[in-house]
Amino acid sequence: MSEFKTLEEYQNSIKEFNAQSILGFEDFIINSNNDRAKLQLRCTPHTDKKCGYGCHDLDFGLSVWQHQQTKIDELQKENEKLKYERDAFQEFHRDCKVEIDLLKAEKAELEKRISKTLGMLDGDLSYVEEDRRRNFEFLQMVMIRCLKDDMKALRGES
Questions:
Q1: How far is 122 from 117, CA to CA, in rounded Å?
Q2: 62-84 mean pLDDT
Q3: Nearest to 19 by CA among 58, 72, 66
Q4: How far is CA 14 from CA 20, 45, 47, in A?
Q5: CA–CA separation, 80 vs 84, rounded Å?
Q6: What is the C-alpha to C-alpha distance for residues 158 and 152, in angstroms, rounded to an integer?
Q7: Would you call 143 exposed, middle or buried from its count of C-beta atoms within 10 A (0-12, 13-18, 19+)?
Q8: Dist CA 66 CA 18 (whole Å)
Q9: Closest CA to 58 of 36, 80, 75, 79
Q10: How far is CA 154 from CA 13, 21, 44, 103, 116, in A?
Q11: Residues 55-65 as b or e (16 or more Cβ within 10 Å = b)
Q12: Residue predicted with more confidence, 39 or 1
């Protein structure tokens, strides 16, 4: 998918790229220690009429500069994409860590409920085993009460 909606936008981006490349290239030459290139630049400025500098060394240098600048731009776009993906992954990782912490807390709470219920069941079983009254209706009532208490404990109700 193209980032340009019209041909005019594309052409304007090419013009902007060329203008920026020329400025960057000329700044590079001006700041370099190459006096010959500086002299060539002063004597043969870039013009649209000539479609360049009119000097082979400068024209070739500009084409190499533009080619390298294109590579730099592509690498910068790729770098931005990778930064975005890294940030998204880090956010996902943080979210997962929060979720894991919540699950660990929930697991600890459930283990606590189960442990409490097992203790209650042990006590209830001991009570029923030790009852010697032979009153089955009473035992039934006790078992129903104990089982209801155990169910509440499993649900986390007091």
A1: 9
A2: 91
A3: 66
A4: 10, 20, 16
A5: 6
A6: 7
A7: middle
A8: 8
A9: 36
A10: 68, 72, 89, 17, 8
A11: beebbebbeeb
A12: 39
Tokens for 93, please give them: 């990782």
What is the residue-wise DSSP string for the chain? --S-SSHHHHHHHHHHHHHHHHHHHHHHHHHSS-HHHHHHHHHS--BTTTTB-S-HHHHHHHHHHHHHHHHHHHHHHHHHHHHHHHHHHHHHHHHHHHHHHHHHHHHHHHHHHHHHHHHHHHHHHHHHHH--S--HHHHHHHHHHHHHHHHHHHHT--
Q: What is the mean pLDDT of residues 16-39?
A: 80
What single-letter amino acid sits at 32?
S
pLDDT of 145 over the 90 cut = no
Encoded amino acid at 135, one letter: N
Tokens, residue 12 = 């304007």
Average pLDDT, the chain: 84
Contact 113/127 with Cβ under 8 angstroms?
A: no
- Residue 40 token pair: 């060539």
Residues 92-140 pLDDT 10s: 999 999 999 999 999 999 898 888 888 888 888 887 777 777 777 887 8
